[in-house]
Amino acid sequence: MSDTFELNGRQVLKASSDRVVAExxxxxxxxxxxxxxxxxxxxxxxxxxxxxxxxxxxxxxxxALNLV
Length: 68
Description:
By secondary structure, this protein is mainly α. 54% of the residues lie in helices and 10% in strands.
């Protein structure tokens, strides 16, 4: 397994053990965007802002998707 995980040409993480987490976060965000479902948040902007505040891998995935 690779030591890095790249998304849209951006390195999302360095530890290979975090790759599964990054892929799960990516699938979750993509599903929310595809379904346009943001509950419990009132909008996509509110959801992205809340997720970004959590930091870590989630924030890196949001940045790689150019959502922040």
